[in-house]
Amino acid sequence: MVDEVPAARSTLRILSFMAAQRGPVAASTIATALELPRSSVYKLLGVLEQHGFVLHFPELRRYGVGIAAFELSSGYSRQAPLARLGSPILATLVDKIGESAHLAVLHGRDVLYIVEERAPRRPALVTDVGVRLPSHLTASGRALLAALPAAQVRALFPDRAAFAHRLDTPQHPGIETYGALKRVLAGVREQGFATEDGDVTEGIASVGVAVRDHAGWPAAAIAVTFPTAAIEQSAWPALAHDVKHFAAELTRRIRGLY
Questions:
Q1: Which residues form the HTH iclR-type domain (predicted)?
Q2: Exposure winner among 19, 85, 102, 233, fewest CB in 10 A?
């Protein structure tokens, strides 16, 4: 019998993985993606099913998120703790650097923006609260994806059809394959922060850093967005250093690890 703490951790990982999928998934897929023993996955899925957090589709031999998990997410949405904790942190960040900032969470293959703090005399952005964008195109999304296990990223992007485009120009050919995404995320991990330059909006760039929860998993990302001409690329690491400081503070407030 798996002892209580690893079982709880595995259960949360399973629910998080299932919530990120487009539809029901097989237990074997969950076990492979999370590198868990199949026997443990089946046992935990059985318990989750009993309590309504998971639904079993016997004809498909797959599992989906249950109504109890939805009720939890509804409670989270009502309380909006990340937004409440993140708003004053972003306001302080914007006051310090004079550029706009936002807080985003991963939602399937997209990022969902939950806080935006616009700097004075800076242009309006597409990252309004409630907007969703393809995660692989944004600095926030790349920061979040880089903090996930490779198998989970692969599950999110199984083929070319998963890679949406915002811009498609010679200057911005886009990420079209898992191999290309893998190289981008390796660069994010190496430098410690994510960037995008014109991938979402021409002439606008962003620098993003992941915020981790108590288990070290990416709970959200803070990103700063600015006109490309306003900040030279050589200054982006210094900007990322400031973003990391505020991401660490939000991590601390949600009792995470950084």
A1: 5-67
A2: 233
> Does the predicted model carry a pTM greater than 0.85?
no
Q: How far is CA 232 from CA 33, 77, 139, 188, 197, in A?
A: 39, 38, 17, 19, 11
**CATH for the stretch 80-253:** 3.30.450.40
CATH fold for domain 4-72: Arc Repressor Mutant, subunit A (1.10.10)
Q: Supply 223's token pair.
A: 């990103």
Instruction: Look up tokens 């993985």; give the residue.
Output: 17
Q: Inter-axis angle of helices 81-97 and 236-253, to 10 degrees?
A: 150
Q: What share of the chain is helix, strand, coil (3-state, %, to 5)?
A: 50, 20, 30
Distance from chain centroid for Cα 245: 19
> What are φ and ψ of residue 172, in 5° steps?
-135, 75
pLDDT in tens, 3-36: 456 888 999 999 989 988 888 999 999 999 999 9
User: Domain locations in the chain?
Assistant: 4-72, 80-253
